[in-house]
Amino acid sequence: MALSKAHFHYGIEDAIRPAREVMKPERIGAFRMTSLSFARIILRRAMREKWSIDQHRFNLDHNGHGEAIYYIRTPAGTFSFVVVSQDIDEYERSDRVISEKWDITFALCEGVLSEEKIEDLKRELPKQELGRGTVQDLVWSRANRSSRIFQHIVNALTSEQQPDPEALAKVGYIVRSTAFYANGKFGVAPFEKMKGDHPLHGAFSAQLFTAYMLRQFSFDIVEHIAKCQNPQASTLDDRIKRFLGIGNATGLGMVPFLIYHPKLIHQWIYLRELSLARSKVEPMTEEKINSLIDWLDRAIHYFAHYPVQKTGVFEDGESIAGDLQIVRQHLEDFIHSDHVPEDTQWLPIIEQISSALSVEAQEVLNTMMIEIYPEKNEELEQYTVVNEEMELNPSMTIGELLGLINNHYQWVFSFDFSNPDEKYYFWYRSVDKEEPRIAVRGEEPGDEHEMPMNIAELVQKVSFLLQDRDYTEKVATFVFRYPEYKGIIRRIQSLENYDYGEIRGNLLDKNMVPIFLMRCKLSFFGGERFDPKSNRWVRITLFQGAPLIKDFTAINQPKWIFPKIPKLEG
User: Record's superkingdom (predicted)?
Assistant: First the structure.
């Protein structure tokens, strides 16, 4: 790579993508895990602080039913992970959040538990929504055994063999969870308890660490059942363990979160975009180009063997792998070029390459751009929580409020809500599980209980009313006359400096794809292998490829995203 002098230097302000580009549902619905995803953050912390995890109790019978307790020791205190494993009929096993029985229920709790507390959890955890926790409990959740590979693994180990990696790759996990409850739900500890220097501080740290502990239990239970059937049974190979994560099934319940937490969503996306911009303004050194090529090779292999069936919702793995091959070839050509300006930055090169890629492939490339600069970006992990309060400014004039709408909400006027197709769906909350649902307006009952999910329509309505008022009039006077618009005005005022706070789409549209929004949030959790089962729910894996507990003492943090199917021979 021969260098000559560069002519222009790009700054962060040139590289950071505007909200009008990022906040479209199709774009955020192509996001993937990055080094700032919460699963990555909590594992880095556990490895950095060398947390130790011990199996304290494992009272399971030959079918794997009973209770287990693990202790997690951190520099700032001890936590207990409690599992209750029970027998349920096959017909009771479901991905749906409305299920009433699960194979496994579990909790992450503070401290070493008394026998009285353990008995209390054994009684309450299997009830889930109908149970009652205490402030000692940080997270409650539940999971089911995979009907496809749980028994396959047990049978292989019992036969003193390893399970077939190719069969495991089709599933990616041994057990599959549905929901992780925390932040005061069912009486468990509020989020405020985990602020400051708490070992589990940060967005969704407690929930994701609980998911990681479930992964460990999934290894232990299959080995235990196999040992009960054959004392000489094999243990699961560490390479297979690292390859397996846990499954998760997610439905519409995640979508309102993105609408009702705009400051938090802004913060998460801003950190992601800032880290991407930081990477793009760095000079293209030979070391970093080779690092990106190495990541591309991992990703190309991963997507070429992507086990998710084509559904037409997301880009298929074969197409993504093909696009990434194009990126790789560009970099190979670049590194062997004789006319590379000195200090050439990534920004113009990445923009040129990206223009030929699908949105999915662009976001995979962006994930890897963040990945090759951990020294620039991982310090952002401490800023995942923000103050979400929104306040009404009653002294603002109507003219100033219209100015905010003109500057930040022009996108809402691209929708025509007099068109029935643009108000095709309505959102409501079910009575039985209080879960968000969507229904077709005019065909299904309940639109009188519609949730206020459509920000675009609300802004349109208030804007039309404001335009007929005296522009020197105060907002307080307007709200006194139209109190039903107090909430949307407070939102508009409060999000003035939160560019990424609004999803720029119509959530009522006939062609709406809710799983775009679910995938956005799941990518921040650290979800991968997005496997849509309809446009309303999706399966993912968490921690697939992640280090094991025994790896916590490793000097170097391993690369673990885009894992390869393990080869066991030799």
Answer: Bacteria
Per DSSP, 293 falls in state H
Residue written as token pair 């292999």: 301
In sequence order, which ranges of 342-442 are alpha helices (DSSP H)? Answer: 346-354, 359-371, 374-377, 398-408
pTM, two decimal places? 0.94
- How many whole angstroms separate alpha carbon 534 and alpha carbon 219? 30
DSSP strand pairing (173-181 vs 245-250): parallel
Task: Report the alpha-carbon distance of residue 235 to residue 263 in Å, rounded.
Answer: 46
Looking at the DSSP bridge assignments, the partners of residue 85 are 66, 104
285: number of CA atoms within 13 Å, CB side?
A: 7
Could you tell me which residues come within 8 angstroms of residue 214 by beta carbon, excluding any fewer than 6 positions away? 83, 104, 106, 141, 143, 175, 177, 246
pLDDT tens per residue across span 305-334: 998 888 788 999 999 999 999 999 999 998
Beta carbons of 35 and 50 less than 8 angstroms apart: no
- 44 vs 48: CA distance, rounded Å: 6
Question: What gap in Å lies between CA 318 and CA 102, rounded to an integer?
Answer: 35
pLDDT one-digit tens code per residue, 240-270? 999 999 999 888 888 999 999 999 999 999 9
Structure tokens at 147: 């009907």
Return d(Cα 178, Cα 225) in angstroms, integer: 24
